[in-house]
Design goal:
The chain is an all-alpha fold and about 130 residues long. The chain has one domain. It has helices at about 5-40, 50-70, 75-100, 105-125. It starts with a helix and ends in a 6-residue tail after the last helix.
């Protein structure tokens, strides 16, 4: 395997690792918010969308952070790509499930997720390792 193949494989592994971490965090946040929402009967239904967005943003941040930590270079790039993949999967699932077209809210969610993924990637690549 050549050096170019190794870089490509390492990049894909980092993005996939970041995507999986972000998807898990997003899912856990959604489950936690669903539990809180069902237990706190005082929350209005209008809180669902902001809570879903918060879960997606947190997932994007963690996904970008993990991808950049794995690759150890180009944090903003890997954070953006990871957040874009996460947004694409979430938007596809949402479009299939609800059959609603993309809206302004979708655009805001996309840019917000990309921004937080990039920030997570920058912080992930710049995080110092602990000495043991």
């Amino acid at each position: 395997m050549g050096e170019a193949d190794h870089k490509w494989t390492a990049s894909l592994k980092a993005i996939l690792f970041g995507f999986c971490a972000g998807a898990i965090v997003c899912t856990v946040c959604l489950l936690l918010f669903a539990f809180i929402f069902t237990q706190a009967k005082l929350l209005p239904l209008s809180m669902i969308r902001p809570l879903v967005l918060i879960a997606c943003l947190f997932g994007s941040f963690i996904g970008g952070f993990c991808a950049a930590r794995k690759r150890k270079m180009q944090g903003m790039f890997y954070g953006l790509i990871t957040a874009l993949v996460l947004f694409g999967v979430l938007a596809l699932v949402s479009a299939v499930k609800t059959a609603q077209p993309f809206t302004f809210y979708t655009l805001v969610a996309c840019f917000s997720m990309l921004l937080l993924g990039a920030i997570g990637g920058i912080l992930g690549v710049n995080k110092k390792n602990r000495r043991k």
